[in-house]
Batch of 3 targets.
Target 1
Amino acid sequence: MTNSVIVVAFDMMVSKQRLLEPLKSQRHMPDNSTFFYQGDDMTLRAVTVGNWCVLFLIAVVGVVWLSEAHAQDDSEESVRVGSVVTVTDQWLLSLTSGQQNFYKTLRAMSGRQWADGLPFDRLYGLFASRQVDCIVAEAPVEPAETIASVHKVRFEMVMFARTGENLVRNDSVTVGYLATLPRMKLPLAQDVEWYGLRTIKQGIDLIGAGRIDVLIAHASLFDNDPSIVRLPFPPVHVIELALVCHDTLKNRDFIAAFDARLRSVHDGSGNTGTAIPTNRVGVS
C-alpha cells in the first residue's frame, strides 16, 4: 500500500511538470522544478505549490513505511507462547500464590505474545510446526531439540463433584479429565466412564451442567464456588509444568530472563511485575 502511494505521488509530480513547461517558456523561468514564482500568474503559483505538497506527502509516506517496517521486525522478534489454559485474571484467582507467581511472571515478560486456550493436540501441533516458540507443558517434549525453564509450576489434581450429589447410588460415574493426562487409578467402587476434556473450561461447564459426575482438576479451582465440592480423597495425580521452548538463541534469552525474574520473586528481592496487556497472536 505504501509503495503504491509513492508511485501515485510521483505521477502527480510528472503531470504538474508537464503543465508547467509551457508556462515556463512564456515567463522565461529557469528549469529548476522547485522554483517558486512570485508573479501575478496564480496558475503557475498553484503548480509549484503543488509540487511542494507532493514532496511533503512523499516524506510523510516514507516515515510511515519505516515505522511499519520497524513494527514488523519487533513482531518477528517476539516470542510466541502457547498454553492449554486461557490465562485470565479470574483464572489466576483460583491458583495458589506460588502458581500465580509462575503465570504472572510469564504474563509480565516483554516481547511475549499469547496463543492460549488451545486444545492439547492443537497446541502441540503448533509447537511441532514452530508456529509457536514456547509452550507451558511437562518437560521434556518432542521434538528433542527443546529447552525448559528451571522453575516449574506444580499442580495437585483432585476430584470434584457437585455439592449434595450422592455418587454412591450410581452404578457408574462419568469422570472428566484433561486429555493431556493419563487415566488415573481412582478410589471409586463404581465403573468409571472417562470423558477426555480439551480444556479445563470445558470441564467446568460440563460439571456445572450435570453432564459429568466428577471433574479432575487442580486443588484450588473451586475454592470460591460453593456449588462444587472436593471429594475427600488424596490427590489422584501430580503434574509439574515448565516453560518449554525450541532451542534457539532468542528463546534461550527469553527463558533465562524468565528464570531470573522468578528467582528474584522467590528470593523476595523482586515482584512478578505488572502484566503487559495481553497480546494474543493469531495462529492458523
Target 2
Amino acid sequence: MTDTTPHADGHANKNDSKDKKKTEPKQIGKALRKAEHSIEILEKRHDDDIEHRLERADASSRLLSSVWDEPPAQLLRFRPGDQLTDVDGGSTPGFPGNKAQGERFIAISSGEIARYQQLLYANGTKGSPRRMLIVLQGMDASGKGGIVRHVFSQTDPMGIHYHGFGAPTKEEQAHDYLWRVRRELPKPGWISLFDRSHYEDIVMPHIYGTFPEDVWRARYDQVNEFEHELVDSGCTVIKIFLVITKDKQKEHFLTRLSDPTKHWKFDVSDLDARARWDDYMAAWQEVFEKTSTPEAPWYLVPADNRWYSRAVVSELLRTSLRDMGLSWPPLNCDADAMRRRLDEE
C-alpha cells in the first residue's frame, strides 16, 4: 500500500530519498507547531459565536491532518485486489516523521478528539442519533489495548464504552451470535470500542470448523446487513485491522514471558493461534473481501511501530468525528429569564 513511484529511468533516486529524510522531519515539526498554535488561539477565543468557533476547530483539525502525505482513510482503506500478506507491518505509510513526532501528533490529536467527543455526547443528550462504533481486530500482541489507552487519553469517560469480546459464555451461546454484540452498541452520543468483535464469529469457525461452512459463510451477508442498519440509523462504523509481523509478535511474546508484570497477558492459546498464522491470514483476507463496504470499510494498519498505528487510529477517529458536522445544541429556555431568576435569589 506504499507508493514507490520510480523516476523516468525506472529507478528510485537515492539522493531524493536522502533529501526527503532530511527535510520531512522539519516540515512535520513546523506543521505540528502551526496546529498547536491554532488550537491555543481557539481555546483562548471565547468571544466568537458558535459557528465561528466550530469553523476554527475544523480549520485546526485540518491543519493537523496536513502532517500526513496522504490521508490514512484513503491510503490504508482495503480495496478489491489488496492482499493482507502484502502489508508490511513495519512500515509507516503516509507519515513522514519519526517516533517522537508521531507521539506529539497523538497528544495534540487526542485533545481535539476530546473536544469532538464532548460535542457528540452533548448532541446525544438532546436526541441526536449520531454515535460511533470502532472495531479493533488483529493478531495477539498487535496493540489493540494500547490504542484505547493512548488515543482516548484525554476524553471524558462519560460517553466512551469499551468492551473486549472473548469466547462466548453459556448465556451468549444460547442466543444468536449478534445478541451479545447488540448489547454493547453505542447509545446516542456515545463511542463504543470493540476489542475483537462479531468478526470472530466468522474467522474462528472458518479456521477451526466449529460450525458448518454454510452457517459461518451466511454470516458475511448478515454482518453486512447489520452494519448497514447501524450506519443508516446514524452510527459511524470504523473497522481497523492491526497488521503485525510474525517476528514482532514473537518479540512481544518473549517480553511477556520474561516480565512478571506481563505474565497475565500471555496464554498458551496465543501460541496455538500463532502456529496457524497462514490460516488466520487467509480467513481475514476473505473477511475484508466480503465485508469491506463503502459505508463500513476496513482499514489495514501496519502495527509493528505502535506509535504509528496509534497515530493512524487517532487521525481516523478525529476526522470521522469532525466530518459529522455537528453543532452545539442550543439552549432550550430563555437565557435572560434564567439570569433574572438567579439575580432575584
Target 3
Amino acid sequence: MQELPLVFFTVIGQLSAGMILLSGLFYLVSRSPTKLAITRRIYAVSLIFMMIGMGVASLHLGQPLRALNVIFGIGRSPMSNEIFTFCLSFGIAFAFVILNHFVLYPDSTKLKIIKPLCQKINRIPGLNYLLATMLVILSQLFVWSIVQTYMLPTIKTWNTHYTAIQMYTAMLVLGGIAVTWLGLYRIGYCAFFIGSSVILLVKRPYLELMTSIAPELANNQHDLNVIQCRLLIGAMVLLLLTILCRRHPKILYLLVFIGVFVAEICERITFYNLWMITI
C-alpha cells in the first residue's frame, strides 16, 4: 500500500511522543535520585525512534526538498503543525540529552568542543524542568496535530471521535511498554493498561460504526482487527504475570514491545484501509 510510510511514521511518532510524555512526567514529579539518568536514557532512545520515523516519512515525499515549504503552513495547516511539533520535540530532547551528558559524566572527554558551552547553559536554574515541561506539552500537541490532519469532513470513516481515541491510545500503549522496557515500571504499566483497556473496550462500537458507514471496507479489515486484539490481550497477560512475580525480565519486555508495535501497525493499516471520500 502507498500509505505504508505514513503508517510507520505515525506509529513511530506516537511511540516517541508517549516515551517523551511519560518520562517527562516522571522527571517532573519524581524525587528519585536516578530520575535524571532514567529520563535522559529514555529521551535518547526516543531520538533514535524519531530519526527512524523521519527516514521512513521521507519515503512518502515525491520531492523531499519541497518539505521546507512546511514552515509556511505553521499555525493554519495541521500537517505543518504535525511536522513542526515533531521537529521541535526532536531538537529539545536532543538538547536535554547532550546538556545532561556533562551533568552525569562531568569528567567525560567526549564532545570536548561543546563542553564549556554546555556547562554554562546548565547553570541556568530549573533548565531541565523547563525542557521537560516543554516536551510534555509538545508531545500532546504533536499527537493532536495528527488527529487534526486526519479528521476530514469528506472522509466519514476518519471524521469521528474514534480517530482521536486511536491516536492517543497508541501513544499510551506504545510509550507505556517502551518506558517499561527501559526501566520506568509504574508509570509504564499504568499507561499501557489504560491504553490497552480503552482500545479493547471501544473496538466493538468502533467497528459497528465503520460497518454502518462502509460495510465492505470494514469487513475486509476483520483479520487485522483480530490480530491487534489478540496481541494486546497477550501483552496484558504477560505483563500481569511479571507484576505478580515481581520480576522485570528485559527480554520479555522487549518481546511484548515488539508484539504491541505489530498490533498498532495492524490498527493503523486498518485505519488507512478505511479511507473513502463521500460527497
